[in-house]
Specification:
The complex is a heterodimer.
Chain A (H helix, E strand, L loop, with lengths): L11 H4 L2 E8 L6 H11 L5 H14 L11 H9 L6 E7 L2 E7 L7 H8 L4 E7 L6 H12 L4 E7 L8 H17 L4 E6 L23 H7 L12 E3 L2 E3 L11 E5 L10 E5 L3 E9 L13 E6 L10 E3 L6 E12 L5 E2 L3 E6 L2 E15 L4 E3 L3 E2 L4 E14 L10 E5 L6 E11 L1
Parallel strand pairs in A: 1-3, 1-4, 4-5, 5-6
Antiparallel strand pairs in A: 2-3, 7-13, 8-9, 9-12, 10-11, 10-13, 11-12, 14-20, 14-22, 15-19, 16-17, 16-21, 17-18, 17-20, 21-22
Chain B lengths: L11 H19 L3 E4 L4 H14 L8 E5 L5 H14 L3 E5 H6 L17 H12 L3 E3 L16 E4 L27 E4 L7 H10 L11 E8 L2 E4 L13 E7 L10 E3 L5 H19 L3 H13 L4
Parallel strand pairs in B: 1-2, 1-4, 2-3, 4-6
Antiparallel strand pairs in B: 5-6, 7-8, 7-9, 9-10
Helix pairs in contact in B: 1-2, 7-8
The structure holds guanosine-5'-diphosphate.
Guanosine-5'-diphosphate binds next to helix 2 of chain A.
Chain lengths: ~425, ~300
């Protein structure tokens, strides 16, 4: 049995590979566990004795084949025991990429889990059964992926062995998926035929799918370009922490620490500090031990300003030529995550970037009927609802539409009595 | 598509590092009295580097705390004190020995005695005593399957208990750090890292590790197919004659239950290479021995398998 050569991962190139965050979704029995198991097995992440264990268990269960789905039996066991199902995070690595997989069960009532897993994903893998094609759940998963702004979707059309590896049923499904993706404004979507159980076209190309020249499932994951997904256009820097050592050595040092939410930051850039509206320029963009030429979305850095302004956590440094809205009213999509419903007029705490404020749920305008894909009128929020709401804010938030920026366009809602996180929001529009 | 400037390349280590720094700053900003757990082990050494990146040139906005079993490898304590001195930060030592002396816990006896389980009480007592409301730790999701679902901010009730159903959803990079008086949070900034990521990061950042992580000659004895350091902390059975061997250890902490492996690996690359290679032979040779396959399992999880 082959294993990965781990020493090879200590080279500079290996340390420089990118991280790809995936969320996997599919309805029960489409083969998600088998696909993940197959991916791990064929990329040699499974040890010999672990495999032996799976072989033994498969035999005991009378599966009649080596059931790779057992490698990821965490969620399965829970499902069988009827325990709360949740998002599980796992990692694996190939020589060209490091993957982090958020595995969310596919059932309707787990919308909240998929939303959670999808919030940080670069790629959504949506599984289908080739025999059934596009079903309601496929539409729902694609819809949520699109709503959460995931830039890439890979449709894994599984169980091709059960349609005799035929091209025509796949092409029919592909056409339908292409239409679905474009209707939902998904930027990049691709359907790939696979058979996870026998292992066709997952990691290794398949003779039996000789008509397919679009590459394997893993190749697709390894080559999707994600660096270009960063928001390079809108300069946003929520201040997280003020570094003021006041030591002899760093007497006048005043650095603003945070994670770049958008744009490219360089020394000399013009800056407006929101909500105060004061302007200055960037004196330096740095880390604890070096100055940076440029910092981009996702990097945790320190920014120093040319003038000593009064800047605190919760403020945002922005491009004066293109600043976000200093908002007191939001229209947003909210996914309700609590078992306790909320009615119009509910008061909630909001966390947006590094800023907290309070909000009143002015109006639930409509709730998405996930079966019909229609907005239907509603007067409250219940668990797993995806609703269009209007919120009135006690203090200003510095927001962009979610479609423009996933960091400055997102927020969570917190119940002030219990401190629980009860909702996740995506800004549609904002007003002062 | 034509892009105007070449894209900045962020590696997986860059991304994981930025995420961990963000988390540390959130804890510092949202909790009143956080503390960073520092054992001298490699995961907590990584945490220290991340704290430097998060807060320098300022001081750390929290002290460090070592939950000291009293059964330490001398190399680990020497490393701890030197590193804390270099950083100029405050160290709180929570001592298991003191918990024993005060009657908070009962020391196990006999050759198989270990202080591993006693640490929890010492930690909880120290958190209460110092009024800490958040403990930043180096646990990772790849260590155990059950951890795959644990949150980065993991909430404990007044009794320090974790209720898997009362955990908060975590979306985007928004962490909700609100708690009531008496409640506590465990925060795991390197939750998403694997064993391999940690080694890669140690190599990239050129972090020094305590010498026990690399092969060295030491007095050991054999028990259940594992090698343990011979020390005053472990009672040996009469048949357990100590002998000299080249070994390395995978964790620091309680000397009485940390098994070593025969090794000549003196660099990170050699250690990682060895971990990958040994497990194949280990399997064939010592399957009958539970203890060893358990250790093999542990190594495997650490390396990013699951
Ligand atoms: N014939 C065939 N069966 C498959 C394939 N992939 C999965 N299955 C089977 O479909 C059933 C459900 O798979 P599983 O991975 O458990 O689905 P999950 O519920 O989505 O995790 C199992 O009996 C699998 O063996 C495939 O490519 N071909």
């Amino acid at each position: 049995m082959e294993t990965l050569d781990h020493a090879a991962f200590l080279t500079d190139e290996a340390a420089a590979t990118e991280l790809l965050r995936l969320v996997t979704c599919g309805s029960v029995d489409d083969g998600k566990s088998t696909l993940i198991g197959r991916l791990l097995f064929d990329t040699k992440q499974v040890m010999a004795d672990q495999l032996e264990h799976v072989e033994e268990t498969s035999e005991r269960r009378g599966d009649g084949y080596v059931n790779l789905a057992l490698l990821t039996d965490g969620l399965r066991a829970e499902r069988e025991q009827g325990i709360t199902i949740d998002v599980a995070y796992r990692s694996f690595v190939t020589p060209s990429r490091r993957f982090q997989l958020a595995d969310a069960p596919g059932h309707v009532q787990y919308t909240r889990n998929m939303v959670t897993g999808a919030s940080t994903a670069d790629v959504a893998v949506v599984l289908l059964d080739a025999r059934h094609g596009v079903i309601e759940q496929t539409r729902r998963h694609t819809y949520i992926a699109a709503m959460l702004g995931i830039p890439h979707i890979v449709f894994a059309v599984n169980k091709m062995d059960l349609v005799d590896f035929d091209e025509s049923p796949f092409r029919a499904i592909e056409t339908e998926l292409t239409e679905l993706a474009s209707r939902l404004d998904v930027r990049d979507a691709l359907a790939i035929p696979i058979a996870a159980l026998p292992g066709d076209n997952v990691v290794d190309p398949s003779e039996r799918l000789s008509w397919w020249d679009g590459g394997t499932f893993l190749e697709r994951l390894e080559t999707i370009a994600i660096a270009g997904d960063r928001d390079a256009a809108h300069r946003r820097f929520p201040v997280q922490w003020v570094i003021r050592p006041m030591s002899d050595e760093h007497h006048d040092f005043r650095g603003y620490a945070g994670q770049v939410a958008g744009g490219e930051w360089r020394a000399g850039d013009e800056v407006v500090v929101l909500p105060s509206g004061r302007t200055t320029t960037v004196a330096a963009v740095e880390t604890h031990d070096r100055a940076l030429d440029v910092a981009v979305q996702g990097q945790s850095v320190v920014i120093r300003l040319a003038d000593a302004l009064d800047v605190a956590r919760g403020d945002m440094l922005c491009d004066p030529a293109d600043a976000p809205v200093v908002a007191r009213e939001l229209e947003a999509i909210v996914c309700w995550m609590s078992e306790r419903p909320a009615a119009n007029g509910a008061r909630l705490a909001v966390k947006h970037t590094t800023r907290w404020t309070r909000a009143i749920l002015d109006e639930v305008c409509s709730v998405l009927d996930v079966e019909k894909f229609e907005q239907v009128p509603a007067d409250g929020l219940a668990l797993n609802d995806l609703a269009r709401v209007r919120l009135r804010l006690a203090g200003p938030l510095l927001v962009d539409p979610y479609s423009v920026n996933r960091q400055t366009g997102s927020f969570v809602l917190v119940d002030e009595a219990t401190n629980e996180t009860v909702g996740a929001g995506m800004v549609l529009s904002a007003a002062p | 598509m034509t892009s105007k400037a070449p894209l900045v390349h962020l590696s997986h280590l860059d991304v994981l590092e930025a995420e961990a720094i963000h988390i540390m700053r959130e804890v510092a900003a949202e909790l009143e009295r956080p503390v960073l757990l520092f054992s001298g082990g490699k995961d907590s050494i990584v945490l220290l580097r991340l704290a430097e990146k998060a807060f320098r040139p300022g001081r750390f906005p929290f002290p460090l705390m070592h939950v000291d079993t009293g059964h330490n490898f001398p190399e680990a304590i020497e490393y701890r004190d030197r590193r804390v001195g270099e950083l100029g930060e405050r160290l709180v030592v929570a001592s298991v020995q003191e918990s024993i002396d005060r009657g908070r816990v009962v020391e196990q006896t006999g050759p198989r005695a270990s202080r591993n389980q006693l640490q929890t009480t010492t930690l909880l007592d120290a958190m209460t005593e110092h009024g800490f409301d958040a403990a930043i730790g180096g646990a990772r999701r790849d260590e155990e399957r059950s951890r795959a679902k644990e949150r980065i901010f993991s909430f404990r009730d007044d009794f320090g208990q974790w209720d898997p159903r009362a955990q908060r959803p975590e979306l985007w990079n928004l962490y909700n750090g609100r708690i009531r008086k008496g409640e506590q949070v465990r925060v795991f900034p390197i939750s998403n890292w694997t064993e391999l990521d940690v080694w890669q990061y140690v190599a990239r950042e050129e972090l020094e590790l305590p010498a026990i992580y690399f092969a060295h000659e030491r007095e050991v004895f054999e028990r259940d197919g594992m090698l343990y350091a011979a020390s005053e902390f472990v009672e040996r059975y009469p048949t357990e004659e100590p002998f000299s061997e080249w070994v390395r250890f995978r964790t620091v902490g309680d000397m009485s239950c940390t098994g070593g492996v025969r090794s000549r690996a003196e660099t990170i690359a050699e250690v990682v290479g060895e971990i990958a290679a040994t497990r194949i032979t280990e399997r064939g040779e010592t399957r009958a021995d539970d203890k060893v396959s358990e250790a093999a399992m542990e190594d495997r999880k650490r390396l990013g398998y699951f």
